[in-house]
Write a structure and sequence with these properties.
With about 260 residues, the protein is of the alpha/beta class. The chain folds into three domains: about 15-150, NAD(P)-binding Rossmann-like Domain (Rossmann fold, 3-Layer(aba) Sandwich), CATH 3.40.50; about 150-185, Double Stranded RNA Binding Domain (2-Layer Sandwich), CATH 3.30.160; about 190-255. It has nine helices and eight strands. The protein has helices spanning about 20-35, 45-50, 120-135, 170-185, 190-205, 210-220, 225-230, 235-245, 250-255, and strands at about 15-20, 35-40, 55, 95-100, 110-115, 135-140, 150-155, 160-165. The strands form two sheets. A six-stranded parallel beta sheet has the order 3-4-2-1-5-6, with helices on both faces. It has a two-stranded antiparallel sheet with strand order 7-8. The chain is elongated, with a radius of gyration of 23 Å. About 30% of the residues are buried.
């Protein structure tokens, strides 16, 4: 099986996690970090998930416009029920908790589902339901039931390095991630932000391709990573003034050239 590599924007998107154990916890927390509106369906939760949970007894149907006509739910046709319900928006960093087992029809209205249970019957039910609703599904440790798989990720702020073996050996992917984590310094997170802000400034100024390439190369070949790691702000400011203009400092660059959208 061949997979298409992609990074998804899940900001404010309704996503569902089925299960409340340690694996489900990791998946849910990753979705929360990505800005998704996360609902967890499980009779029980880990302590970490409980700390984030806003209890609810019904599927909030966060995004009814995404539901497919072929998606059958137990609530369809019931008078007084309205897709979307009366659920209030989630607070940042919170999840919704539906305290029960998964049931057919729960998939409706979500953009993405992760099933993280050790019950094959439940996983197959979620798979059938997600397929009926046209919702992309990942089932932990069951690549045959997945529409997409999750890579091992080295996270350096805006810089993400994803490693996948197409489901053949998660152990190897994890081992390679550990190798890369040792070779990619933490300072890369700040470096990417600085370089991104410089790019926005150059775009605003209408710099030509040759000028931009020259400056980007200077950044890459500089000791910026070392200066960031050692907190040498004066060195960073001197470099920025030389390459971007005498008025540019790190704080001014980051403040006036924030990446939006």
């Amino acid at each position: 099986m061949s997979f298409y590599p992609v990074f998804l924007n899940l900001e404010a998107r309704p996503c569902l996690v089925v299960g409340g154990g340690k694996v489900a916890e990791r998946k849910a927390l990753a979705l929360v970090k990505a800005g998704a509106e996360v609902t967890v369906i499980s009779p029980t939760l880990t302590k970490a998930l409980k700390a984030l949970a806003e209890p609810t007894t019904e599927n909030p149907k966060n995004s009814p416009k995404t539901a497919k006509k072929g998606c059958k739910t137990p609530e369809k046709g019931k008078k007084g029920k309205k897709a979307g319900g009366s659920e209030k928006p989630l607070e940042a960093g919170k999840i919704r908790h539906i305290k029960r087992n998964y049931k057919f029809g729960d998939a409706e209205g979500y953009n993405l589902i992760i099933s993280a249970t050790d019950n094959l019957g439940v996983n197959k039910l979620v798979h059938s339901d997600a397929f009926e609703c046209g919702v992309l599904l990942n089932v932990a440790d069951q690549p045959g039931l997945c529409d997409f798989i999750l890579p091992s990720v080295v996270d350096r702020g805006a810089l993400k390095v994803a490693i996948s073996t197409s489901g053949r050996s998660p152990y190897l992917a994890a081992a390679m991630r550990e190798m890369l984590e040792q070779s990619l310094p933490e300072a890369l997170a700040s470096f990417v932000d600085i370089l991104g802000a410089a790019r926005i400034k150059l775009l605003k100024e209408g710099a030509n391709s040759d000028k931009k390439a020259e400056i980007y190369e200077a950044f890459i070949e500089s000791q910026m990573l070392e200066w960031i790691a050692e907190g040498k702000r004066a060195k960073i400011n001197a470099f920025l003034k030389d390459k971007l203009g005498p008025e540019v400092t790190l704080s001014k660059l980051l403040k006036s050239n924030k990446l939006t959208g």
